[in-house]
Amino acid sequence: MSDDALRATRMTLDELLLSESDLIGGDRIARRFAELRANVAAISDDEPWLKSWLEQELTKGGAMFVTAKADRGRNGSLDAPASDSNSRAAIIRRFNAWSREVVAHIDAYRRSDRTESVIRAWGVDSTLSAHSA
Questions:
Q1: Where are the domains of the chain?
Q2: DSSP codes of every residue in 8-48
Q3: How sure is the predictor about 83, in pLDDT bands with cuts at 50, 70 and 90?
Q4: What digits encode the pLDDT tens for the residues 69-81?
Q5: Do residues 58 and 33 make contact, with C-beta atoms less than 8 angstroms apart?
Q6: What SS3 state is found at 58?
Q7: Which of 27, 70, 74, 95 stands 20 to 30 A from 113 (CA)?
């Protein structure tokens, strides 16, 4: 099931690009995150490092989405200059870069020997193997 679930996770992430209009309602993004969480839960417990890494990544992406959405709710259509690293536009750019990076890592993982060391080489959290479903 890991391969199917990982493939579904990758496909959903590949389509997960945030735009300003998503911040007004946000239902599309919330549905995508629900799909992602279900896909990650379906990944085999034989690869706990993969599940843990993906859970961490979904937490990062979710935090960026919530931050951008809260900013939109607080400031409406007004935004700081796009060059400001805290602007909503910058958060949206980081979110979209994040989703592309996770897709690239999933592709690399699928081509690899699928070990914890592959994920550790990306410089991620050192508690991966300590977290298991």
A1: 2-130
A2: HHHHHHHT----GGGGTS-HHHHHHHHHHHHHHHTS-TT-H
A3: low
A4: 988 888 777 776 7
A5: yes
A6: helix
A7: 95
- pLDDT band (50, 70, 90) for residue 87: confident
Half-sphere exposure of 75 (CA within 13 A, CB side): 15
Contacts 24+ apart (CB under 8 A), 63-69: 64/18, 64/91, 64/94, 64/95, 64/98, 65/18, 65/26, 65/29, 65/33, 65/95, 67/91, 68/18, 68/23, 68/92, 68/95, 69/23, 69/26
Q: Please state, as a whole number, how many other Cβ atoms lie within 10 Å of the Cβ of residue 133.
A: 11
- Torsion sign (Cα): 57, 59, 61, 67: negative
